[in-house]
Amino acid sequence: MNIILVGSNHKTTPLEVRERLAPRDNESPHPLMALRSLPSVQEAFFLATCNRVEVLAVVSEVKEAKEAIKEMLQKRGGLSPKEVERYLYTYKGEEAIRHLFKVAASLDSLIIGEPQILGQVKDSYRLATEMGTTGPILNRALHFSFRAAKRVRTETGLANHAISVSYAAVELAKKIFGELEKKSALLIGAGEMAELAARHLIKNGLSHLLVANRTFARAQELAGVFRGSAIKFTELPIALMGVDIVISSTGASNYIVTPDMIVEALRRRRNRLLLMVDIAVPRDIDPQIGQMENVYLFDMEDLQDIADENMNMRQVEAKKAETIIDEETDRFMAWLKSLETVPTIIDLREKVESVMNQELERAGTWLRNLTDRDREEVTILLQSVINKILHDPITVVKEEHAEGGTINYVAALRRLFKLDEKTNTPTTGRKDDAPSSRA
């Protein structure tokens, strides 16, 4: 019963190699089925995102399984032997579990604290359970990883600090206006950064979204995604009179929003605050507008400063999160070690009870002369003696398990009582003449 993890991620592997390992639609056979067919793999979990491909497996033979999994990934990605050695990493046992927990908690992500990875881990686990490739060990490990991620999310501030420019823009809006439920926003431009900003705005409860773009069809497309409204560029002056937030990210070479437009808009706004965020390079909004009363204007430099400062704050929170990961890893490993203890206790009890039954059979002549009640009393007496003899060794093994040191005691019990040796001793419901592989 060994746990290993083989994988590749953004830290170890360049993009052109990761692209070859990336998730694929309708892949046949599915990697989970390919993994489960390997003789040394007992349980398998497969995680594939744009930044990582990892296999977590319970295996019978570590070396054999590691090479087989690497070969599967090599064929899947068309990797050369040199690329396999250079870009694939392997973790075993506690290291593998700790890595899984860090991945789920977004401590190993390209952007530390991003929330998407936990959903991706859960989706991959759901697929693995549907395909029947996980078992008691990986099921427990994945549920522990979800708990670790939840603790990191609730007990630290890892996800509370914006580190992307678009997210920082929305965090600014929340600081200035508080709740966004009754606020409206205007996006000027409909590119990737505008779309990301729109997602953050809607997620935070924005009431209404306007989208302006030089290509009106694209404005309509983006507005439709967020149930907003598309407007033409010629309608910008009117739109500025009513919205609370403006986020601009076009590729224009000249200022799109001029002081004259804002002066006229402010005249109609009756002292309502206007937040303007310019995430375009070169800038879309004339910097002079930032000097006007009731207008807050931020550009890319302002937002990048916020993002950099928040990244430093996330690093501090990440240290707190590491402590949580260590705690949850220790808990899982303690549970895993307990699986070695329980079978040995069962084997020990069955061995002793087997000896008792054998001796009762040998004493059959005089036992038959006893009454049924007396024979029952003899059996109860012997069982009581067995319980008292086994009480201390079993208690010590359990106590050592609680402290994480059961392995030597388990090995000692199995050797002292010859639990793994072939024997013809009569048994009570199990085959003692087969070597045990549970410890």
Give the arrangement of secondary structure elements.
Layout: E1 2-9, H1 15-21, H2 31-36, E2 41-48, E3 52-59, H3 62-77, H4 81-87, E4 89-92, H5 94-104, H6 116-130, H7 136-155, H8 165-177, E5 184-188, H9 192-203, E6 208-212, H10 216-225, E7 229-231, H11 236-239, E8 245-248, H12 259-269, E9 274-278, E10 295-298, H13 300-362, H14 364-368, H15 372-402, H16 407-416
Parallel strand pairs: 5-6, 5-8, 6-7, 8-9, 9-10
Antiparallel strand pairs: 1-3, 1-4, 2-3
Helix pairs in contact: 5-7, 5-13, 6-7, 7-13, 8-9, 8-13, 13-15, 13-16, 15-16
Task: Walk me through what this model shows.
It is built from 16 helices and 10 strands. By secondary structure, the protein is of the alpha/beta class. The chain folds into 3 domains: 2-155, Glutamyl-tRNA reductase, N-terminal domain (Beta Polymerase, domain 2), CATH 3.30.460.30; 165-298, 3-Layer(aba) Sandwich (Rossmann fold), CATH 3.40.50.720; 340-416, no CATH class. Helix 8 packs parallel to helix 9, helix 8 packs across helix 13 and helix 13 (300-362) runs parallel beside helix 16. The radius of gyration is 32 Å and the shape is elongated.
